[in-house]
Amino acid sequence: MKANSAKEVTRLGQIPNVGKAVINDLSLLGITRPDQLKDKDGSTEH
Cys-Cys crosslink for 14: which of 3, 5, 33, 37, Cβ 3.0 to 4.6 Å? Predict the structure, then answer.
C-alpha cells in the first residue's frame, strides 16, 4: 500500500510512483531506505 504522507513511509515501495524498477535503480546508487533520500536533489544524483 502506498503512503499518504512522508511520515508514513518506511519502505521505498510505499512512495507513490516507485516500483520494482526504481527500487532496483536506487539500490544501485546505494539507496535502500526512504530516509536516505532526504536532502537529495534528483537532478544531480545520476
Answer: 3
Which of left, alpha, beta for 37 (phi over 0: left; psi -120 to 50: alpha)? alpha
Amino acid at 9: V
From first to last of its 46 residues, what are the pLDDT tens digits of the chain? 888 888 899 999 999 999 999 999 999 999 999 999 988 887 876 5
pLDDT at residue 14, as a whole number: 95
Where are the chain's structural domains?
Answer: 6-37
| Angstrom distance (rounded) from CA 10 to CA 12 | 7
State in Å, rounded, how far the first CA of the chain is from the last one. 27
